[in-house]
Every structure is written in structure tokens, then in C-alpha cells.
Amino acid sequence: MKDKEKEEKKKVTDVSPEEAATPEEEGQEAKEPAENAPEETPQEKEIRELTEQLEQARKQSEDYLDRLRRSMAEFDNFRKRTEKEKEQEKTKGVLEVVSTVLPLLDNFERALASIPEDEKQNATAKGVEMMYQQFVSTLKGIGVEEIPAEGEPFDPNKHNAVMHIEDEKMDENIVCEVFQKGYSYKGQVVRCSMVKVAN
Prior knowledge:
Blueprint: H1 2-14, H2 23-35, H3 42-114, H4 123-141, E1 144-146, E2 159-165, E3 174-180, E4 183-185, E5 188-191, E6 193-198
Parallel strand pairs: 2-6
Antiparallel strand pairs: 1-4, 3-6, 4-5
Helix pairs in contact: 3-4
């Protein structure tokens, strides 16, 4: 019996420290390799740093690209606005000049209308006619055109009615006579036609 007890004691004492470890100690040992992970190598560290720098550079380039796009859009809007303002100033200038010269054109027409039929073939009359045609052609060249009036339906935006008559032969609100021609510049009225309207 004493020999059996001796053998059991011997078995206990013969157990190595690794075998005698408790479950808690075993858990700690399992954790140690994870906690003591190998340090990154210089190459890995360099790759990580370069990756971070690349990401930073990518974000910065996107920011610069966004700013460039905004600047381009603002410049394009500025250019369009400037062109529109220049066109408006040009149109305003042309309208002022045309308004000033239209009375000269009216005088040419009056002069031609006052020439008797038997004198229309002489050199003076032909010279006045040629100057009038050149004047009209020059105005057309810059976009100034006569507003159609006689025989057209009355349009208060283009015609200035100074007289009304009753005429059963004509339709209602039709221009039957023009006292003074009207003109437009690129679709914009410079001067309304002074007209007589039927009915």
C-alpha cells in the first residue's frame, strides 16, 4: 500500500511544468503569440507610408480638380455675360445711330416723291435716286430693314395708327396707307410705321 502511494507521488512530481499548467495559464500562453506579433519590416513600413502618401495626394488632386472646374465654370459664365453685355451695348449704339439717320432717309424719299415725272430722267434726279438706293443698301448691310406695313394686319408693336377709316372692301384692322416707314434692327423695332388703318 505504501508502495502504491509512493508511485502516485512520483507520477505527480514527474509531470513537466508545461503539462501542469492550468487552463487559465494555457489561455495566456495562447494569447502571447498574438500580442508578440512580429514587427513590420522596413519594406512593409515603406509600403505603408507610400500608400498613405498616395491616398493623400489623390485627395489633394481631386480637390485641385474640383477647384479648376469651378474656376472654369465661373470664367465661362463671365465670358458669356461679357459677350452679352457687349452685344447689348453694340445694339444700343446702332439703334441710336439709326434713329438719328432715319430722318435723312425720309428726306430722300420726300425729295424723290417731289420730282415731276418728266424730270425723273435727268441727271440730278438719277443722282438723288442712286444716293437713296445706296443709303438703303448700307442700312440693310448692317441689319436695318423696313417694317412691312401696307396690306398687313395692324400690329401695335410695329405700327402707329394715326388714322382710322371705314372701308367695306378691306378686312378689319388692315393697314391701308403708310405715312412714314418704320424700321427694325435684327428684329428689334427702331421706329414704328405711321399708318392709316381700315375699319
